[in-house]
Design a protein that fits this description.
101 residues, mainly alpha, 75% helix, rod-shaped
Length: 101
């Protein structure tokens, strides 16, 4: 009878060990799948950020070219405008918190 008890105790420990192993394996697999999903999200966000930075650069270039003398000169001449004299310049203070790139 004593030998049977020892065998049952061994089987119980083995069963417990298998259950613990399965739980740990499930937790590891779940954690890795969450990590893969987050990595995909990071890649998507990084691609979007790069696209937005490229668009921002393009828009800044368009703003600079729209304000260039070569582009404004024909419109100025067509409207009959002239270059202001020094006395016609008015310096306005910049509002706080505004930046210009």
């Amino acid at each position: 009878m004593a030998t049977r008890r020892v065998k049952r105790r061994g089987r119980t420990r083995l069963a417990l060990g298998i259950v613990v192993f399965l739980l740990l394996a499930t937790a590891v697999i779940w954690r890795r799948s969450v990590g893969v999903d987050r990595a995909r999200a990071l890649v998507t966000l990084d691609e979007r950020r790069m696209a937005l930075e490229a668009e921002r650069t393009q828009l800044l270039n368009e703003i600079r070219s729209a304000g260039s003398l070569a582009r404004l000169a024909p419109q100025v001449a067509r409207r009959g405008l002239h270059t202001p004299t020094e006395s016609q310049f008015v310096e306005l203070p910049r509002a706080r918190g505004t930046t210009r790139e």
